Amino acid sequence: MTVPAPFASALPPASGPRVLVIVGGSVAAIKAPAVLRRLREGGAQVRVIATSAALAFVTELSLATAAAGEVATDRTWFAPRPDAQHLTLARVDAAVVVGASADLLARAAGGHASDLASATLLSVRAPVLWVPAMNEQMWTHPAVQANAERLRGWGHRFLGPVVGAFGTAGEGAGLGRMAEPEEIAGAVLALLDPPTSPQDLAGLHVVVSAGPTREYLDPVRFISNPSSGKMGFAVAEEARDRGARVTLVTGPVSLPDPPGLTVRRIETALELRDAVKEAARDADIVVMTAAVADYRAAAAQTEKQAKVAGDVTLRLTPNPDILAELGQEKGKRVLVGFAMETHAGIERAAAKARRKNADFILLNYPTREGTAFGSDDNEVTLVRPDGSHEAWPRLSKREVARRLLDGARRLRRGQEAAG
Ligand code: C5P
């Protein structure tokens, strides 16, 4: 298919890394145009192959428009043409299979060349990233897992599937949802420009909460706090750069979505709880940096409350303690909390770690200048449930994140070794 005229001006630059995007036959194929757009925004030149099954879910026109270029299909492969299309398309710097189906995995793992996608995959020598999307029963079947393992053995990488809502009506939620377009594009761009950080969190799912929550009294008034989200975003970005799959659940902050991770924006503590608990189902490390409001209105008003003469009394009710709830079903997850204390910090933080069943708590001091709320630096003390602790000097929030994840990774390794 040729480029639709109105989009010709959006043709990709002739330079920039070349990325082959293979779109597989899954309902998640409808996200492929967003992946193509993100890759182009990231400076890549994209080439697209859509399998015949993919075209049942996403149109050639929307792919061509998002790619600002031709879409290769089995039809174009078998059409008379001057080149062997599966060889031309294989000359790329990275390849990604979006909406990878069990069948396409099987064809690639079996070395088939019966269609353009499989034949091209046999010819690609650049890194290949698979982004599967299929229901949990199919993904966990030994046949599919064996195929994925075989591909991994040849150096292919995998992103997801993740836990979440997916599929056509009625399939509901579970493991099987495809990773989000930003995360896919971020992972592909990272393949092209390998990070210098050690990839010591590869294969782990890290869930981070960040920012404040808002507890509405009425539609226009709320209780909140000045948390900027910077600490949580630093943890999420550090985890991503060290190879983890990252879900960042954040309250209202002015920071943009970091590329290469899944971001869920929420407002209230109850929404935070739902989003964190859903993401935590398959998490290895959960870091609660969010400054969760302790209370919400006992009865939030649906209409704006008019001003009245004299004092008013607010009736508040406690919010659930999300970290403590996660601690009750801890499993092998490593749980990390943050606490702000103005006095008796270490004892209070250790008691909190015990009560919430957290592996450690980073204690920070809201009254120290240049640290905590809104600042780029932080001065924290790592406190364990038994009261042992390490005071760290004043560091950038990114450096605090690095040390925090070092500690969490060691604990995770210890728990794996313990079986
Ligand atoms: O508020 P507190 O000092 O108890 O917070 C300590 C830790 O617990 C923090 O990591 C915070 O994110 C978490 N927390 C929570 N749910 C709450 C309150 C705090 O998960 N309702």
Helical stretch tally? 14
CATH architecture of the largest domain: 3-Layer(aba) Sandwich
The overall pLDDT, averaged over residues, is 90
Indicate the CATH class of the largest domain.
Alpha Beta
Radius of gyration based on Cα positions: 24 Å
Q: At the third CATH level, what is the topology name of the largest domain?
A: Rossmann fold
With strands numbered from the N-terminus, the spatial order across the biggest sheet is: 13-12-9-14-17-18-20-21
N-C termini distance = 54 Å
Uncertain runs: 1-12
The set of bound ligands, ions and cofactors reads:
cytidine-5'-monophosphate
CATH superfamily of the largest domain: CoaB-like
Count of extended strands:
22
Tally of distinct domains: 2
List keywords for this structure.
2 domains, Rossmann fold, single chain, 419 residues, 22 strands, alpha/beta, 6-stranded parallel β-sheet
Overview of the molecule:
This protein folds into two domains: 18-192, Rossmann fold (3-Layer(aba) Sandwich); 205-418, Rossmann fold. The longest helix has 21 residues, at 397-417. The radius of gyration is 24 Å and the shape is elongated. The strands form six sheets. Strands 13-12-9-14-17-18-20-21 form an eight-stranded mixed beta sheet, sandwiched between helices. It has a six-stranded parallel beta sheet with strand order 3-2-1-4-5-6, sandwiched between helices. The protein has a two-stranded antiparallel sheet with strand order 7-8. The chain is 32% helix and 22% strand. The protein contains 14 helices and 22 strands. The termini are far apart. The model is unreliable at 1-12 (pLDDT under 50). With 419 residues, the chain is α/β, with parallel strands linked by helices. Cytidine-5'-monophosphate (C5P) binds next to helix 12 and strand 17.
